[in-house]
Amino acid sequence: QIxxxxxxxxxxxxxxxxxxxxxxxxxxxxxxxxxxxxxxxxLQKQVSHLVYENxxxxxxxxxxxxxxxxxxxxxxxxxxxxHLTPQHPPRDASPAGLLSIAEETLAEFLSK
Length: 112
Fold this sequence. Notes:
This protein is mainly α.
């Protein structure tokens, strides 16, 4: 009976440690989720702004193209290029690519 009591005690202690470890991981993931949601909101606003700018540049290009009959749009492209440069290289959108992005992001977050 004593042997069983100690086994149960060890099992409960092990469960407590695992529960506290999982709670710590959950807190980190919750914080990471919050940061990613904020980043997502920021990027969505940036996309909206860039779509608006793109429409503006297209209308300006068509207006200046009609007025000057210039077939080269190099000047327009270079003038707006600083807005369109991506901050990160394009990534693979496959599940494996997304998993690698998630793992890199988690590793980066946990290193902070």
